[in-house]
Design a protein that fits this description.
Radius of gyration: 64 Å
Helix content: 40-55%
Mean pLDDT: 75
Number of helices: 16
Oligomer: single chain
Structural class: alpha+beta
Distance between the termini: 59 Å
Shape: rod-shaped
Strand content: 15-25%
């Protein structure tokens, strides 16, 4: 895979992984805190609604105070109090000023004329007070009725109040002075969940003296509107319920019963109406739940949470009934928004990742294209990236390397042109074969293309006797095997067959695969022909059939000349028969000759495939082993010792075993003469003689 594609894929995977990880972490976090956040929102809503109701109650209270501060009302109440004192034999002047609450003390100037604040004459204070209150309690007014009671719970003044019996029936002791409370006027129809709805009136009890008090009733439509609107968007958190200090619930549409298991000592509310959830029980709930104000309960398959909040100092409780499904819906909407945001962010990150990968790898493309053009022959082209970062440094180093390659290639061509050896290259990736320019000095072939099929390697004229060996050499070349020194006869530019020596080695690529072979072709025709002439003129030993001493020395001299071209080495084995005199003395000279012939035949059979052997004189033999780096001379010596020990049957019928001592000298250069070389092997042989015979050893 290309680096650019790999980088793009890696960047995209990183971007997507980051997006998914971010989404998962946020989802888990939001899921775990969804209920907490929802409760915070419900609590905030409850506090705001409680403040609104508290402000509404405050406006109700101000309205009552304004009515009670009118001169007609204050004057009438003064006369009632004097009459009460007189009836109880209390002097009027003894009535303390503080007996009349400060909140209903007449203000300077009274109320406006529009509010009906004109004062009647003293004879008709009651009618004046009644008329003023009736004028103030007009249609649509906040105050719907005012009733004044004496200490015996007797009504002394009543305007528009239909629930005087609520006080006179002995329930005054349940009223808290100055607090708003409710009167359940009529029970409505059953609502969802088995609970009921009630019509109610709002009232307030105010003690105005030691013997008189006032009960004021109000229009409850504002409170009902707050409760009704709590079900409308955008709140959508449930509904509101109100509980007055008399433990009456103001609830027009109850959702269900507060159900649940309470600890021991707290009354059970399972199956009971909200009206039975009294203020003391709510407080016990809070104490039991360590201050947690949310009470879970179920209605059928629906789950709810109830929250109770104090409405200031009014003594009222505000309840919020929240459905759990709304909590999950709110979390779901938030998660949807988050998912859309994450998808948008992920798409943006993918685009940025692709753009960054393309921008980051652009210099690599420039470098690759430039190197490709240089490889195809445009050696003057250089990488044109001028920057102060690593790309600029890489470009600078590549350009310097290209300069060195061009200079080195020029030197290489010069050396090749000056040499008689022919250099060739077979590129397996392209299938092309190239020869050095000096190829035309020896061979006249001109290939129509650079492909192997048209190359001289495939089309050369090979001597018929060398055709099969050359085919095997080509197979080795095609397989990328090394060629050490294969010799063939090729037809040259003059139409004659000449001897050439071929060597090659494979070149490996970055993945250790063989990408090409490079070889050399050496002209060894002169040396080979000299060898042939010497062989033709050679004389052989009459007794053993081996080369004689003179011929053997000439052949060894020729090998010395050839090792320079072949870049190889050869070995000399000097062999002497141990105790040869024993055969002549104990048998006959004819038996001794049989021993020499047996020794010569055995040696020649072993070395004829990779060397030559000759009789040096008497019972001494010399063997020349070519390519001793491949043909181990020590192994050759061991084979000779084993073969001779097997023996032969002589003319008298006895089996005779022959033992020899062998000295070995390895020749790697041309600085020594043949007599020195043979002398070195002879010295090695004598050391074996002295150390026990029948063995071989190398010269030190």
């Amino acid at each position: 895979m290309k680096i650019r594609n790999l980088l793009i894929i890696s960047m995209i995977i990183f971007a997507l992984f980051s997006m998914i990880l971010f989404t998962v972490i946020i989802s888990v976090s939001m899921s775990s805190s969804a209920e907490s956040r929802y409760k915070e929102m419900v609590t905030e809503m409850s506090v705001k609604q409680a403040q609104i109701i508290e402000q509404l109650f405050d406006s109700y209270n101000q309205r009552l105070l304004r009515i009670m501060k009118t001169p007609a009302i204050t004057e009438y109440m003064r006369l009632l109090e004097e009459a009460t004192k007189a009836a109880n034999d209390i002097p009027a002047e003894a009535i303390p000023a503080e007996a009349i609450p400060a909140e209903i003390t007449p203000l300077s100037g009274g109320i406006t004329e529009e509010e009906g604040s004109s004062v009647a004459d003293e004879e008709d204070k009651y009618e004046e007070a009644y008329r003023v209150i009736s004028a103030l309690i007009h249609e649509g007014s906040v105050v719907t009725g005012i009733t004044v009671f004496n200490g015996n719970n007797e009504i002394v003044l009543s305007v528009g109040n239909e629930h005087g019996d609520f006080i006179t029936s002995g329930r005054r002791q349940n009223l808290k002075e100055g607090h708003f409370t409710t009167v359940l006027a009529q029970q409505g129809s059953a609502q969802v969940g088995g609970s009921s709805a009630y019509d109610f009136e709002l009232l307030k009890y105010v003690q105005i003296s030691e013997s008189h008090f006032v009960v004021c009733t109000y229009n409850s439509s504002d409170i009902e509107m707050i409760i009704e609107r709590s079900m409308l968007p955008p709140a959508n958190f449930g509904k509101l319920v109100l509980r007055c200090p008399m433990d009456n619930f103001i609830d027009k549409k109850l959702v269900g019963n507060l159900r649940g298991a309470l600890p021991e000592g707290i009354p059970k509310v399972s199956g009971q109406e909200y009206a039975n959830m009294t203020v003391p029980i709510v407080r016990e709930y809070e104490q039991y739940l360590d201050g947690e104000k949310f009470f879970p309960y179920d209605v059928g398959r629906n789950s709810y949470h109830a929250l109770f909040t104090d409405v200031g100092e009014t003594g009222w409780l505000l309840g919020v009934i929240a459905r759990d499904a709304d909590m999950h819906e709110h979390s779901k909407k938030t998660m949807t928004s988050l998912l859309n945001c994450a998808l948008f962010l992920g798409a943006a990150m993918v685009v940025l990742a692709v753009f960054f990968a393309l921008w980051f790898t652009k210099p690599f493309i420039v470098i690759k294209d430039t190197l490709t053009k240089v490889r195809r022959g445009d050696h003057e082209l250089r990488i044109n990236i001028k920057s102060l970062n690593e790309y600029g440094n890489i470009s600078k180093e590549f350009n310097a390397l290209l300069d060195n390659v061009v200079v080195g290639e020029g030197r290489y061509k010069t050396v090749v042109e000056m040499s008689n050896n022919i250099i060739f290259e077979w590129n397996f990736q392209t299938g092309n074969v190239h020869f050095s320019n000096n190829f035309g000095k020896k061979f006249s072939y001109r290939a129509p293309s650079d492909s192997y099929e048209d190359s001289f390697l495939n089309k050369c004229k090979v001597h018929p006797e060398d055709t099969e060996p050359y085919k095997k050499t080509l197979e080795k070349l095609a397989a990328g095997e090394s060629i050490q020194q294969d010799e063939f006869r090729w037809k040259n530019i003059f139409g004659d067959y000449i001897w050439v020596l071929m060597r090659s080695c494979p070149v490996h690529g970055v993945n250790d695969e063989i990408v090409k072979v490079v070889g050399v072709i050496i002209d060894i025709d002169r040396a080979k022909k000299s060898e042939k002439i010497l062989s033709a003129r050679a004389s052989y030993d009459a007794l053993t059939g081996l080369y004689n001493r003179e011929t053997l020395e000439n052949l060894i001299n020729n090998e010395i000349d050839l090792i320079t071209a072949r870049k190889n080495e050869f070995s000399i084995l000097f062999i002497d028969v141990d105790d040869f005199k024993f055969f002549n003395d104990n048998y006959s000279h004819a038996t001794g000759d049989q021993v020499l012939r047996f020794t010569a035949i055995s040696i020649n059979d072993i070395v004829s495939k990779y060397g030559m052997a000759g009789r040096f004189g008497g019972d001494e033999f010399v063997v020349c082993v070519r390519n001793s780096e491949i043909n181990d001379p020590a192994k050759t010596a061991e084979e000779i010792l084993e073969r001779l020990k097997e023996g032969f049957v002589c003319d008298v019928g006895d089996r005779l075993s022959v033992n020899v001592s062998i000295g070995i000298a390895i020749i790697r250069d041309t600085t020594k003469r043949v007599d020195e070389i043979i002398g070195m092997a002879d010295d090695a042989m004598y050391k074996i003689k002295k150390s026990g015979k029948s063995n071989y050893g190398f010269i030190n």
